[in-house]
Design goal:
InterPro entries: Haem_Oase-like (IPR016053), Haem_Oase-like_multi-hlx (IPR016084). It comes from Thalassospira profundimaris. This is Heme oxygenase. One of its GO terms (molecular function) is heme oxygenase (decyclizing) activity. This protein has 193 residues and is mostly helical. The protein has a single domain, classed as Heme Oxygenase, Chain A (Up-down Bundle). 67% of the residues lie in helices and 0% in strands. It is built from nine helices and no strands. The mean pLDDT is 94. The structure holds protoporphyrin IX containing FE.
Length: 193
């Protein structure tokens, strides 16, 4: 198995839990629901931003910085006139993405991988009049093609040489990133209750 195949298999349950919880909040039934989902995306991509910008990671993964979807998430919020979550919200207080080490690669795997599921979400966003030019920009595929852009990242990640301890950190990073998103979902449920 390649590294990506291993991390995909190891995080299958993590992903399923997030998928189920996001769908349960019916984000594409109304723009009000979608705004809740978008705020989570903001918090996630905001946490990811320094990882995409990290010089050492850009050396390892050329072109990494151009992959960040944070600006698109901000544009989506502006389209819908939704305020950015403040950096003092509880979720922001738990913005705990690692700032060094190979755990960051696991977080990047989760964020990049989420652009695959985004193809389905973008289609569903059409139900509430949103598309890749308004409100759902961050769900659009890359100009090179969604699949191709992903496969390029997969190849880059698979080629990295990691020792056993680094590999374990990478794997843990992927679990932690899903756990972070899970935390955002739980917080959203608390606020909505
Ligand atoms: C309702 C919400 C979601 C749905 C329906 C969904 C659906 C999917 C689907 C269908 C794929 C496979 C696409 C393909 O192989 O072509 C996928 C991949 C993936 N998604 Fe999601 N997703 C959702 C949310 C998320 C979120 C919020 C994250 C991250 C926090 C995420 C992370 C990933 C990752 C990492 C992969 C790549 C797995 C791999 O091939 O290695 N997904 N998603």
């Amino acid at each position: 198995m390649t590294r990506i195949e291993r991390v995909k298999a190891a995080t299958r349950d993590d992903h399923q839990q997030i998928d189920d919880m996001v769908m349960a909040m019916k984000p594409f039934d109304s723009r009000v629901n979608y705004a809740r989902f978008l705020k989570m995306q903001y918090c996630f991509h905001r946490v990811m931003k320094p990882l995409y910008a990290a010089p050492d990671l850009n050396d390892l993964i050329p072109g990494l910085s151009s992959r960040s979807r944070f600006d698109d998430v901000c544009a989506d919020l502006a389209d819908l006139d939704v305020a950015r979550p403040k950096d003092t919200t509880p979720s922001a207080a738990h913005m705990a993405a690692p700032q060094k080490g190979p755990g960051r690669l696991g977080w990047l795997y989760v964020c990049e991988g989420s652009s695959l599921g985004a193809a389905f979400l973008l289609k569903a966003a059409g139900n509430i009049g949103l598309d890749d030019t308004f409100g759902a920009r961050h769900l659009r595929g890359h100009a090179d093609g969604r699949g191709r852009h992903w496969r390029e990242f997969v190849a880059q990640l698979n080629e990295l040489e990691l020792d056993e301890a680094e590999e374990a950190e990478f794997m843990q990073g992927a679990h932690d990133a899903f756990a972070f998103f899970h935390g955002l979902l739980l917080e959203d449920q608390r606020l909505a209750a």
